[in-house]
Design a protein that fits this description.
This protein is an alpha/beta fold and about 210 residues long. The protein has five helices and eight strands. The protein has helices at about 35-50, 75-90, 120-135, 150-155, 195-210; strands at about 1-5, 10-15, 25-30, 55-60, 95-100, 115, 165, 175-180. It has an eight-stranded mixed β-sheet with strand order 1-2-4-3-5-6-7-8, sandwiched between helices. Helix 1 packs across helix 5. About 40% of the residues are buried.
Length: about 210
């Protein structure tokens, strides 16, 4: 279902999945180009959760997806404020999940629990953005104009404590690992239904444990 939410900067679109009862997961895609490469994958996860009786919402954030906010006007603070507003809109008890740099935006939402897949810190995203700009040879970042203030914010943006899931090829600390390929590295958008099913199972077990 297509829905919307309002925040201090305006109105943004939001997809809703699953039942009308129980807690709701609010999900965050990676920022910028990685969102295009992983959107179908995250939607597959959320649909699998709906089949398991768990509701979810996928909001567009300012400057992302179908948002009309230009990327040069975004700040980490308003991405976080918008995500928190989306969470308040859907339910009084939410859980957040974030893929890659999507894990940066849930700090103001005060969820009942956080779940991150291959999370990327602000400094890690900043390094990736600079690499993209150097490879492109221009002043923007793969077509995104970003303000110096936003880039400075990234350099000081960490992650909240969360259940952390990684691919089995990733050596960083994790609570669990699963086999699969990093879709965010693909040249074109792609999907991995087998990995999506594994992650949906992990999320569902985690939610049920949290709910006690």
């Amino acid at each position: 279902m297509i829905d919307h939410y309002d925040w201090a900067g305006g109105r943004e679109a939001m997809l809703r999945f699953g039942p009308d009862t129980g807690p709701v997961i609010v999900a965050a895609l990676p920022l910028f180009e990685e969102a295009n490469r992983t959107r179908a994958f995250l939607v597959t996860i959320l649909r699998a959760l709906a089949e398991r009786g768990i509701a979810s919402a996928l909001p567009d954030l300012p400057g992302q997806g179908e948002s009309l906010v230009p990327t040069h006007r975004i700040e980490i603070a308003n991405l976080r404020a918008a995500f928190a507003a989306a969470a308040r809109t859907v339910h009084d008890r939410v859980y957040s999940i974030g893929i890659r740099s999507g894990a940066l935006v849930d700090t103001l939402a005060i969820p009942a629990g956080r779940w991150h897949f291959a999370p990327q810190t602000g400094p890690e995203l900043l390094r990736e953005l600079h690499r993209i700009r150097q490879a492109g040879g221009g002043d923007d970042f793969a077509g995104n104009a970003l303000s110096p203030a936003f880039l400075a914010e990234l350099d000081d943006s960490g992650l909240e404590a969360a259940r952390t899931i990684r691919l089995d090829s990733d050596p960083k600390d994790a609570d669990a690992r699963y086999p699969g390929a990093p879709l965010w590295r693909r040249a074109e958008p792609d999907n991995d239904p087998a990995l999506a099913a594994l992650l949906a199972d992990d999320i569902a077990i985690w939610i049920h444990a949290c709910e006690g």
